[in-house]
Fold each of these.
Amino acid sequence: MPKGYCIAHVTPTDTANYPKYREAASAAIAAYGGQFLVRGGRYESPEGSSLERHVIVEFDSFEQAKKFYHSPEYQAAVKLRRATSESTFVIVEGAE
């Protein structure tokens, strides 16, 4: 069964409060068995524009990634992310 991935691109706009989102999101990710593959770090954007931070979290399946995203724990964190950053978020199924 293919893995599931959550991919976020984020530019914090409220750097004083953005760490509250990171803490809440990390706890929810752990609760749903997610593993960070990418969390910030260096990047290049050779084509087009990009937000500042890039995060990829791996889950055992696409369904588990969706359960994480729609969970009450992560939805509480989403409110913090939206209040403290500009961001995009996708859930994708990995290759078999």
Note: The chain has a mean pLDDT of 97.
Amino acid sequence: MSKKDYYVIAYRILAYLYECVKTGKKVSLEYLTAETFSIDESYFDYILRNLFKEGYITGIIFVPILGNELQGIKITQKIEITPQGIEFLQSNSMMNKAHEVLKTLKEIIPGI
């Protein structure tokens, strides 16, 4: 599993949002960017879209893009992890593998 794998990036996003909830810190929208994870914008949108559709996060707005069947994504200041997202973060086997990869790289939540 590489640090650009879907589950690794999803883990980092969910872990960051969960840490913000637990500590009462305001979510930094500057952290939640494709550049933070060194990935393509469309891949980042894909990950956020699916985390939202699975009910793991809230605070995403879908913005229609003319001539494109997919919609763009806007992250709002109200983005947060849901209880279902916390459960997924803590009990999913792929999330556990992602955690081990990131623990080795010491990159779970840079800056926190």
Note: The chain has a mean pLDDT of 85.
Amino acid sequence: MTVNNEGNTDPESSRGARDSGAPDLQLRKPQPDDGVAVFDLIARCPPLDPNSRYCNLLQCSHFADTSIIAVDQRDVLGFISGYRVPARPDTLFVWQVAVDAAARGLGLGSRMLLGLLGRTELADIRFLETTIGPDNRPSWALFERLARTLSAGIETTTLFESQRHFDGHHADEILLRIGPFSAA
């Protein structure tokens, strides 16, 4: 995981975004038609690991309830993919956070995470998990800030080891667990 959309816009719109210095963005559930734009966004956000177009299409359809997209009038500027952990349905696993270079430094990652956690259908979420490489300071800062905002603790363990799980071709993936918290 590295930091680098349902047509309903009321509960997740970004009212007041211009006041905060952020672009006027709409935060919403992804739709299948967003799949290609999400694929292109992730390609613009190294060092994110790219997925197939099909995977991004599934994220925008099967996992729409646990994902969020940020769009302005013409471009996708942010995307978070996630899912409920099957063995722990009170836990949301955040797979990827992508923010376009044009929208970085404006708090979009935090706004998307809080928008996602604020959804009615995720009101029973008490923990958030993600994996982060040891040297990925922007991701660590984003999730540490989220834990502070939620007044929740953080636990870390190594989930996937470089040599054992990636044959040395990828850095360790550290599991960061935030919670418990009240999503409401």
Note: Helices lie at 35-43, 53-59, 108-117, 137-150, 162-166.
